[in-house]
Amino acid sequence: MTAATELVRNAVLVLVRDEGGRTVSRPLIRDRPDDGLTRTEPEPLAGIRAALALRSAAANAARDCVLVLYAREDGRTWAEIGQAVYGDSLPAPQRPAEAFAYFAMDLGSGPVFPWVCGTCGAMVLDRGPEAGSPADQELGHAAGCERLTETIREYEAAD
C-alpha cells in the first residue's frame, strides 16, 4: 500500500468516526477470517460518502491554486506545472495548455491565472501558453521587468 493510499484510508476512517458513522471489524487477510487478525474499517456506505467528500476537498485544494500560484511566482512554466499535474499521461505538447485550463479562471474576458511576479512585484494576468509570446501571455509586469525580459528571450530562442 502506498503512503498516499494509506493516508487516504486513514482519513476516510477518521472522517467517518468524526461524523458519527459506524465502523466495522474486518479480517486483515480476507481469505483467512479465522486467524483473528482484524482491522477497523468504515461501514461501506459511510466510507463511500467520506471518500467522495475527501476527493472533492482534494480537488478544491488543487483548484485553490496556492501551490500553482507559488509555482508561477517562482518562475515555473506551464510546461513544468503540466508535467507535475499530468506526468506522462498526456503528450508533452498538450500538458501546458491542459494545466492552464484546469487552474485558470474566467473573469469575463477569457481565462486568466493571476499571480504576483516575484521579480517586479506586479500583479500579472497570465493568459496561458495558448496566448503565444510571454509578452502577450503575461500582462501586467512592471516596465523593464527582468523576469519577463528573460522569459521573452527564452521563448524567442526556442522558436
Walk me through the structure.
This protein has 159 residues and is an alpha+beta fold. It has helices spanning 3-18, 44-63, 66-73, 78-86, 95-103, 134-137, 146-158; strands at 23-27, 38-42, 105-106, 111-116, 123-126, 138-139. The strands form 2 sheets. It has a 4-stranded antiparallel beta sheet. A two-stranded antiparallel ribbon has the order 1-2. A hairpin with a 6-residue loop joins strand 4 (111-116) and strand 5. Helix 1 (3-18) packs across helix 2 (44-63) and helix 4 (78-86) packs across helix 5. The longest helix has 20 residues, at 44-63. The chain is elongated. The model has no long low-confidence stretch (mean pLDDT 89).
Helix content: 40-55%
Structural class: alpha+beta
**Strand order in space, largest sheet:** 3-4-5-6
Q: Write the element-wise H/E pattern from the N-terminal end onward.
A: HEEHHHHEEEHEH
Distance between the termini: 45 Å
- The count of domains is 2
Largest sheet: 4 strands, antiparallel
The gross shape turns out to be: elongated
| Rg value | 22 Å
Beta-strand share of residues: 15-25%
Ranges where pLDDT stays below 50 over 5 or more residues in a row are none
Our count of helices gives: 7
Number of strands: 6
Kindly report the average pLDDT value.
Answer: 89
Question: TL;DR?
Answer:
The chain is an alpha+beta fold. It has 7 helices and 6 strands; from the N terminus they run αββααααβββαβα.
Q: Which keywords apply here?
A:
159 residues; alpha+beta; 4-stranded antiparallel sheet; 6 strands; 50% helix; elongated
